[in-house]
Amino acid sequence: MTEDLDAQLDALFSAARAETPADAGAAGRFLAIHRERQRHARHVRAGWLSALAASAAAIAGFAVLKPLPDAPTSAAYQVYEQSLGEGW
């Protein structure tokens, strides 16, 4: 009985290992879909990188064009200036 079962399992496994035209077609469809998903992911990534670079450039431009406010003088500098007087 085990010999018969072993022969059936061997036949099943050898049939499963044999490639059929349907397997080749399925592999082709899988690879085509996979490549399309990768292409789309690269496109989306490139869009985000472009948007990020444009935002960084805009922020840098605003930072350069905006005049700096007058820096507040520190208390130590005011005491130093008062002790030496104007025009030191």
How far the N terminus sits from the C terminus, by CA atoms, comes to: 111 Å
Low-confidence stretches are none
The number of helical elements comes to 3
SSE class: mainly alpha
Global morphology: rod-shaped
Helix content: over 70%
Spatial extent as radius of gyration: 37 Å
Beta-strand level of the residues, as a percent range?
under 5%
Write the H/E string, N to C.
HHH
Sequence-ordered SSE layout with sheet pairings:
Elements: H1 2-17, H2 21-65, H3 75-84
Supply the key terms:
88 residues; mainly alpha; 81% helix; 0% strand; rod-shaped
Provide a quick synopsis of the model:
The protein has helices at residues 2-17, 21-65, 75-84. 81% of the residues lie in helices and 0% in strands.
Can you describe this structure?
- The protein is an all-alpha fold and 88 residues long.
- It has a domain at 23-68.
- Helix content is 81%, strand content 0%.
